[in-house]
Amino acid sequence: MSDPGVHLPERQAIAQASPPRPSHDFGERIHATGFAASTAIGMPTGVLADEMLLEGEKRVRALISCAGNLANAWSDHDKAVAAIESIELLVQIDPWSPTRRGWPIM
Asked: Does residue 30 lie within any of the structural domains?
């Protein structure tokens, strides 16, 4: 590895079991619900649309998505489309996704 510890702190490998690490309660609280903000892999999509549709400075204003059709993958299609149209920046990393062609997504 050319740059050890770039994304995670460098850890000394040992040949024994390690205690469990938390996979939730990272970052700030979700403004729309007051629950813990995210999991180890990001904010839950069930509340992401609500966070995008909030008014004010604390709302989600940009999204980087790697693969998939967001409008069809999220639980509420109409809310997802409204939320994605409301953000300032959407980066879609997926050459085959219909999202890259622009809205509306049917």
From this structure: no
Residues of the chain with pLDDT under 70: 1-6, 23-29, 35-42, 97-106
pTM equals 0.61
Q: Check residue 61 and report its DSSP letter.
A: -
**Are 99 and 81 a contacting pair, CB within 8 Å?**
no
Is residue 27 situated within a structural domain?
Answer: no
- Please check whether residue 86 lies inside any domain of the structure: yes
How many domains does the chain fold into?
A: 1
Question: Exposed e or buried b for every residue in 20-32, given b needs 16+ CB within 10 A?
Answer: eeeeeeeeeebeb
